[in-house]
Amino acid sequence: MINLYSDTQTRPTDAMRAAMAAAEVGDEQRREDPTVIALEERVAELLGQEAAVFLPSGTMCNAISVRLHIRPGGDEMLIGEDAHPLVAEAGGPASISGAVMTVLPSDAGRPGIFGAGAVRNAIGGSSPGGNRYAPRPRLLSVEQTVNLGGGLIWPAQQMLEVLDVAAEHGLRTHLDGARLMNAVVASGVTASDYAEPFDTAWIDFTKGLGAPVGACLAGSRELISEAWRYKQMWGGAMRQAGVIAAAGLYALDHHVDRLADDHANARRLAEGLAEIDGITIDPATVETNIVVFGVAEADAFCAALEAEGVRMGTLGDDRVRAVTHLDVDADGIDRALAVARKVAAA
Ligand SMILES: *Cc1c(COP(=O)(O)O)cnc(C)c1O
Do 198 and 150 belong together in one domain? Predict the structure, then answer.
């Protein structure tokens, strides 16, 4: 099977498993696991933040962050089109934290990426305390890279512009960096240049980095110490978690630079797909490891691919998403293209 369903489909490599087996461990929730502590310190430094906390998932990083920033009483979270907390976290921000989520309009042809003007318009005249009719704008959330936008990279300058508007209005800011390291490798901008200006920011180890479990949320010492309350409350505090944290450390050492291979493979896939009749994609829009293309009857198309040993995922009736990662090489891409050609012709 050439599995392009998601970069979450990777298996830990033998070398990663060896690092996990050799990990020094202790009781993580008593702060006695040296490997977890090493990973947290590493991520705090990487993201230009004071502190970090290891969590079981990226979803919990988002959930805790929203809980930290959103207060009871109609606080509003400004968020991009199809962002993960909006479409893939079971309504958590509303259910757990009472957030009103307002979707910001995207830049033309750049789903999930929005400009300073869109943020300003959404905030409107309702400066905090100024308009008792509107929800209170409180949090701006940015996703880097934009997952359902096809792995698009937020340009650093545009990010700073929207953060400036948030700062003018006293909003908290959050960076969903599930695939931040893909943006770092593709753009050459450092992780701390992207993440440092945010109140909270996190990276996932289970996407392109190829680890089996875990994500790390970073912020000020004060916010991370408060995050620990929710980690405990929601059952995210662990015991000998160094075994999984070791996979995160291994990934930061060995699986970051190689993301460039995933990006080259995604471009190779997009260029091949663009030549197939019945498939629509502009390869120039593929900036990292996610390829989204148009095809009629996406469900039937994916079922036919799967029958031939190639897995991709649908996004609605007429779009398909393919994601490259460390378990698929250039030969795998060429074989996937051969199957896509055959299926499209049929
Ligand atoms: C995968 C993902 C998440 C959630 O991370 P999990 O580790 O799967 O819980 C959040 N945001 C984005 C953009 C993602 O792609």
Answer: yes
The count of structural domains within the chain is 2
Query: Three-state DSSP class for 294?
Result: strand
Q: What is the pTM of this model?
A: 0.97
Which of 84, 179, 200 has the most ligand 1 atoms within 8 A of CB, as the residue to mutate? 84
- 223 & 114 share domain: yes
Return the pLDDT at 314: 97
Give the chain's residues under pLDDT 70: 125-130
Q: Give me ligand 1 centre to Cα 293, in Å.
A: 21
Q: How far is the CA of 317 from the centre of ligand 1 (A)?
A: 23
CA of 118 from ligand 1 middle (Å) equals: 24
Same domain? 168 vs 270: no
pLDDT 10s digits, 91-148? 999 999 999 999 999 999 999 999 999 999 999 865 555 678 899 999 999 999 999 9
Predicted local distance difference test score (pLDDT) of residue 131: 77
- Are residues 120 and 268 both part of a single domain? no
Question: In terms of domains, do 221 and 104 share one?
Answer: yes
**Structural domain of residue 296, as residue ranges?**
258-345
Is the C-beta atom of 82 inside 6 A of ligand 1?
A: no
55 and 118 together in one domain? yes
Distances (CA, A) of 84 to 93, 174, 183, 187: 11, 13, 17, 22
Give the helix ranges, DSSP H, for the chain: 14-21, 34-46, 58-69, 84-87, 92-97, 116-123, 156-168, 180-187, 191-195, 221-233, 242-254, 259-274, 298-307, 330-345
Q: Is 211 helix (H, G, I), strand (E, B) or coil?
A: coil
